[in-house]
Amino acid sequence: MLSSLKTLLFVAVIAALLIAGGTAGAKQLYKYQDENGVWHFSDLPPETDLPVEVRPMRVDPTPRLEMEQRGVESKPDYWFENQYNGPMEIEVKFLKASNVTSDPRLPKRFTLKPKEHKKLVEVQPVNPARSWDFQLSYRWVPGDPRARHRPGVLYQPPFPVGDSYWITQGENDRDTHTTPDSMHAVDLGLPEGTPVLAARAGIVMDVEDDFFSSGQNLERFGGRANIVRILHEDGTMAIYAHLQLDSIRVHAGSVVLAGERIALSGNTGYSSGPHLHFAVQRNAGMHLVSVPIVFRGEGDSSVRPVSRTKLTAFR
Fold first, then answer.
1. Is 165 in a helix, a strand, or coil?
2. Which has the closest alpha carbon to 93: 23, 9, 162?
3. Mean pLDDT of the residues in the chain
């Protein structure tokens, strides 16, 4: 007699700010504007007589990969749906396998195109007359592992022309950017509400715009930054993080040009104060790495992001 099938699923933690897939929860968000024009956000009912907007609010990032079991009990197959507007790499493996085989043989990595829904794995017993059991796991990372950063790219400073802001953490500073996915990230001291512009043209791959709080508790705030992820023509991805709630102007699938306004800067997620976290990343094979970037200076000169220096956006 066949034993019952056991399937255990894991979703990998990804990206510079621990932005990952997961099961999304929801709660209420209360939003109102005071007499001075200042907006207030809370997950608790505010004590005010002013008009208050109430809407559902997720408390976890949106899942970006869905798996579905199909087929029959004696020969199940597993379909995966990439919900990014960009490519994704998936690794599938057995955690446990007793009298089973798979097509293709596991472990194996797959690359799904944007929004692709595809059967990746089929499982069946080696000897159907004997009991069989297995545990199947998967993890995923955004981006195509074949992507390579195009040399010589100059990135437009991601704020309005004529403005200058301090680089609070640059390529010479490893205060918090200590992992491969954030090693070449740049923190810019943008006050809340500063327009954030696209530093390079591309397609909006992902948007998170449902978080309003911040703090330095990594477990609590690590995955709760509002972000825009933009896919470039060379397959690399720019991430703009800590954005202000309800400020993102683009949506997944949008085509944006360099210098186009995408959001307002904020202070959401794992953050010690208002700033913009900007990084360019590539999938180096089931893990994200950041790449060194150079900004465009006056007269198309090259400006490296060095901590405690000012960056100016020129036309």
1. strand
2. 9
3. 85
Burial class (CB in 10 A: 0-12, 13-18, 19+), 234: middle
Q: pLDDT higher for 272 or 132?
A: 132
Length of the chain (residues): 315
Q: What is the dihedral of CA 172, 205, 231, 302, to 10 degrees?
A: -40
237: exposed, middle or buried (C-beta count within 10 Å: 0-12, 13-18, 19+)? buried
CA 231 to the chain's CA centroid: 11
**Per-residue model confidence (pLDDT) at position 55:** 67
Contact 242, 270 (CB under 8 A): no
Torsions phi, psi for 298 (to 5 deg): -65, 135
Query: What pTM does this model have?
Result: 0.81
Domain boundaries, given as residue ranges, for the chain = 26-58, 65-142, 154-312
End-to-end Cα distance, the chain: 73
Cis peptide before 125, with omega less than 30 degrees from 0? no
Neighbours of 257 (CB within 10 A): 11
Measured from the Cβ of residue 51, the count of other Cβ atoms closer than 10 Å reads 8
Classify domain 154-312 at the CATH topology level: Glucose Permease (Domain IIA) (2.70.70)
Distance of alpha carbon 226 from alpha carbon 212, whole angstroms: 8
Check if the beta carbon of residue 22 is closer than 8 Å to that of residue 58.
Answer: no
Amino acid at site 154: L
CATH fold label, 65-142: Immunoglobulin-like (2.60.40)
In the chain, the amino acid numbered 133 is D
Structure tokens of 25? 């929860």
The Cβ of residue 57 has, within 10 Å, a number of other Cβ atoms equal to 18
Which value, to the nearest 10 degrees, does the dihedral of the CA atoms of residues 52, 242, 217, 286 take?
Answer: 130
- For position 147, what pLDDT does the model report? 96
**Residues 38/90, Cβ–Cβ less than 8 Å:** no
What percent of the residues of the chain are helix, what percent strand, and what percent coil, each to the nearest 5? 0, 45, 55
